Amino acid sequence: MGVIRRVGLVLLAPVVGVCGVLVHRQEIALGGARLPWGLMLALAGVVALVVLLHLQAVSRWWVAAGALGWAVPVLVASIPTGSGDLLMTQEIVSLVFVFGGVLPLGIGVGLPPRGAQHSAPGITLG
Predict the structure, then answer these.
(1) Which residue range is the domain that position 61 belongs to?
(2) Which of 12, 17, 66, 87 has the CB geometry, 3.0–4.6 Å to 73, for a possible disulfide?
């Protein structure tokens, strides 16, 4: 059952990436300020994905597979089409989405898997 959950989360990663690409530029005007609710929602989705991947992972490979699954659609959306259309522009909101998404994914890959021993060999705690 655990493997099915891990595979499901890895398959959910591209969905989170595509949804983030589509929603990250949405904003709402409150008074004179613009609130980028889409960017906040997209980054919250990435953080939630990393937390779930890390909680279910028995090795870093599962989290790395999820990170790659998120990154592929995001990077493909950055490539201009033949007609010159882009989903990910060179504006600050798109750059914050890309780098703000890569940061928690990198942290999630770098953290030791849940249940790993953290003591150094030859040193006993207690």
Answers:
(1) 12-110
(2) 17
Reported as a single tens digit per residue, the pLDDT across 7-25 is 999 999 999 999 999 999 9
Residue 40 within any structural domain of the chain = yes
CA distance linking residue 31 with residue 74, whole number of Å:
32
Alpha-carbon distance 21 to 28, whole Å? Answer: 17
Please tell me the number of Cα atoms within 13 Å of 11 on its side-chain side.
6
Judged against a pLDDT cut of 60, whether residue 116 lies above it is answered with: no
Distance CA 40, CA 95 (A): 13
119 assigned to some structural domain: no
* Residue 75 within a domain: yes
CA distance 113 to 124: 21
The number of distinct structural domains making up the chain is: 1
Q: Which is higher by pLDDT, 25 or 126?
A: 25
Global confidence as pTM:
0.84
Residue 7 lies inside a defined structural domain of this protein: no
